[in-house]
């Protein structure tokens, strides 16, 4: 699998099929694999967040989740076959896990949401073994949970795959901090995926996904909370891209 570096982040140039096959092969050989996806917002935050940057760079597999990053990398001369969206990869890996008998653990979101997610995915993928699940608010210590107790719960569950639905950079830093203690062979951050699966939020229509407008759909859904975030991150990304393109033309 070809790896490039773009805007200070490693990225693997892979299709969805390539990605699932690569992960399945690693799991079959009981080899640990730390996975992450990068999008516009994460690339922007990595510029000033050294801990997040190191957490991403420590990953064995870095997929591009975001049409803005796909187009930006292509504009700068990189051969990117397609976008590998985290939510779609999540579903493909659950289907593979159900087929192969790999137990999974779901970590993140509100308690009601992760509970509903576990129920939904076991209905969607007959034979899937959800070895355990836990909400993601232990990082804020709202209910007296601590990180090590949750890590032990994951390890004792016997899960082979761990999906972490916590916001960035918390999930990347949590995964990187505890990777050797989790007892799983594969760990992946899935952001707001559980909210989508549980029906708490709806995903953008396919045409908006393909047009790179999922961010706009989120702004429409939550204008008060999202407009400023996307205005700032998208503007910063355009500036980063212009600087990168300028460096390429000067070589």
Overview of this structure, please?
Helix content is 53%, strand content 16%. With 251 residues, the protein is α/β, with parallel strands linked by helices. Strand 1 (2-6) and strand 2 form a beta hairpin. It contains twelve helices and eight strands. Helix 2 (40-46) crosses helix 12 (223-250), helix 3 (50-57) crosses helix 8 (170-178) and helix 11 (214-221) runs antiparallel to helix 12 (223-250). Strands 4-3-8-7-5-6 form a six-stranded parallel beta sheet, with helices on both faces.
Compact overview of the structure:
The chain is α/β, with parallel strands linked by helices and 251 residues long.
Features:
251 residues; two-stranded antiparallel ribbon; 12 helices; six-stranded parallel beta sheet; alpha/beta
Summarize the topology:
Elements: E1 2-6, E2 9-13, H1 16-28, E3 33-38, H2 40-46, H3 50-57, E4 61-64, H4 67-75, H5 86-100, E5 104-108, H6 111-124, E6 130-134, H7 147-157, E7 161-165, H8 170-178, E8 186-189, H9 193-197, H10 206-210, H11 214-221, H12 223-250
Parallel strand pairs: 3-4, 3-8, 5-6, 5-7, 7-8
Antiparallel strand pairs: 1-2
Helix pairs in contact: 1-5, 2-12, 3-8, 11-12
Name the poorly predicted regions. Answer: none
N/C terminus separation: 26 Å
Tally the beta strands: 8
Number of contiguous helices: 12
* Fraction of residues in helix: 40-55%
Shape: globular
Strand count, sense and barrel status of the largest sheet are: 6 strands, parallel
What Rg do the Cα atoms give? 18 Å
Q: Indicate the proportion of strand residues.
A: 15-25%
Overall residue-averaged pLDDT value: 92
Reading the helices and strands in chain order gives EEHEHHEHHEHEHEHEHHHH
Helix-strand makeup class: alpha/beta
Task: Please list the strands of the largest sheet in the order they lie side by side.
Answer: 4-3-8-7-5-6
